[in-house]
Every structure is written in structure tokens, then in C-alpha cells.
Amino acid sequence: DLGAVRLGHRRALARLLRLVFESTKREKALEVADAFAKTLVAKSGRGVQVLGPAPAVIDRIKGVYRYQLLVKGRSLAQTKTALDAVLRPGGQWHRIIGVRVVVDVDPIGML
Length: 111
Prior knowledge:
There is one protein chain. This protein has helices spanning 2-6, 26-43, 76-86; strands at 15-23, 49-61, 64-73, 100-105. It has 111 residues and is α+β, with helices and mostly antiparallel strands. The chain has a four-stranded antiparallel β-sheet. Helix 2 crosses helix 3. The radius of gyration is 16 Å and the shape is globular.
């Protein structure tokens, strides 16, 4: 780590996941994002922070409404473990109709 600092590289202090919930129905996108956030908070361990849901910066594109969650953890493994606990195969989140979920690991932009 000190070698990286000497070379001018910075280690990430936290890892971030951005989840965007998209639907043609605003209420449906918000409802699913909110339920997902509550489940994620209940299933994640210490050191994982869930922020949102909140409207995306561009909250509607071509009639599709967008809400986002940010999941922050100390490491990618920690944030992935929290997400995997919620997205296990055969779980309730695999049967959602009318909402598309996009996951962005370490997002560069928030649009």
C-alpha cells in the first residue's frame, strides 16, 4: 500500500455499487427500489451502507422512470456478499415483472 501511495496511486477507501430500477410506471419502480433497499439493509452486515432510493439524476428517459440505490462497503467482496444475500437464485427478486434492475460496480458517472 505504501508503494502505491509513493507512486501517486490511491486505494479506494470504499467500494460502491449503483443499482438503477427502471419501469414505465413511476410507482412500481419506487416500490421495488424501496423494498429492495429494506431487504438489503436487513441482510447486509456491518460496514455496508445503503443510500436511497432516490430518483436518478435523469429520472425519466423515453417514458421509463428511474430510481437508484447506492450500496457502499469497505471492499468489493463485502458489497457483493450483501447483494448476493438478497439476489440468491430462486428468491423473490427473480420474479419481478415490469421493473428492470441495472447494477453498476464502482460507477464513474451517476447519470
